[in-house]
Amino acid sequence: MESGESWDVRHLEHDIIYWDIVVVTTLDNVQKDAYDALIQQRSTINRIPLGVDYLVITDPGKIGNGGSTMHAMHVLEQKYGWEVLRQKRILLIHAGGYSQRTPTTSCLGKIATSIPKGVIEIFLSEF
């Protein structure tokens, strides 16, 4: 995608399916605020798809991915209700943690790391 192009999924061809709701779980409120700001910034410059509900949810304590999934489902049910959720495509990304083994991504975590254009193609060409 070139800079300035829009990813507004409301106007994509009907055969392209994208998520209706993207949920990102975080370790704490500091990370939540950072992810909220990152999503806002990237949507403003068309770096992430528009027309998607992005929801950042803080995990209540160290509950692991299973507990985090259950908590996220509870928050989604409170916000949308089960009848609405049954008709939505939802992506849940567990992003809580500060990536301590990767110092360059420790502030926001690996989810905020950019992949240089072409890197995926280079890796795929080797298989």
TrEMBL record:
Pfam families: Fucose_pyrophosphorylase. The keyword Nucleotide-binding applies. One of its GO terms (biological process) is GDP-L-fucose biosynthetic process. Keywords: Nucleotide-binding, Transferase. GO terms for molecular function: nucleotide binding; transferase activity, transferring phosphorus-containing groups. Signal peptide: none annotated. The keyword Mitochondrion does not apply. This is GDP-fucose pyrophosphorylase domain-containing protein.
